[in-house]
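retry 2 of 3: previous attempt timed out while embedding thiamine diphosphate. Reduced batch size to 1 and resubmitted. Inputs unchanged:
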Amino acid sequence: MIREVLPRDGFFVEELCQAGFTSYYGYPVYEPRTYVTPGFQGTLGFGFPTAIGVKAAMPDKAVVSITGDGGFLFGMPELASAAQHGIGLVTVVFNNSSFGNVRRDQQLRFNSNLIGADLENPDLMKLAESFAVDGYRVTSPGELKPVLAKAIDNDRPAIIEVVVERGTETSPWKYIMG
Ligand SMILES: Cc1ncc(C[n+]2csc(CCOP(=O)(O)OP(=O)(O)O)c2C)c(N)n1
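retry 2 succeeded.
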């Protein structure tokens, strides 16, 4: 869906999150250097601040950052930079109220012994409002599509929160590690 909306020469900045892992095999890349990734260095929190840099460097191109709520909160204060300098990247936060990957590992490998995996997040719409950037909340891919298209078109800093019920994702790992 993101690929359908993001222009061919737009930049996609992934992150250590379920949607990011899925992009390893699920996101077609059409132009060189338009898929921005930390690779297997796996530096959680890389995505959002990096995407600000991508948009600052390529202001005429669309830039979409995708991130989980955990990774986003690592670099979230940089929203001030995006707002202050009018850096119009669009950030899609998949909010499952947890470090989802860690939570699933604890469930599957550590007998559901959950430690530090669930998160109490700020209200992301109020966060966007308080930084005076655009904020949208959606609950399905169908809802996300027109909102993402509009946010890209507006070319202003925007946060799109995708509400995901904690623990409901299907693991992408079987398609990556075999
Ligand atoms: C700097 C750093 N700290 C911790 C990790 C381990 N780690 C990998 S994925 C992950 C959870 C990410 O949670 P979130 O950003 O909410 O995405 P989700 O998995 O829920 O989609 C963590 C803590 C890491 N890769 N890098």
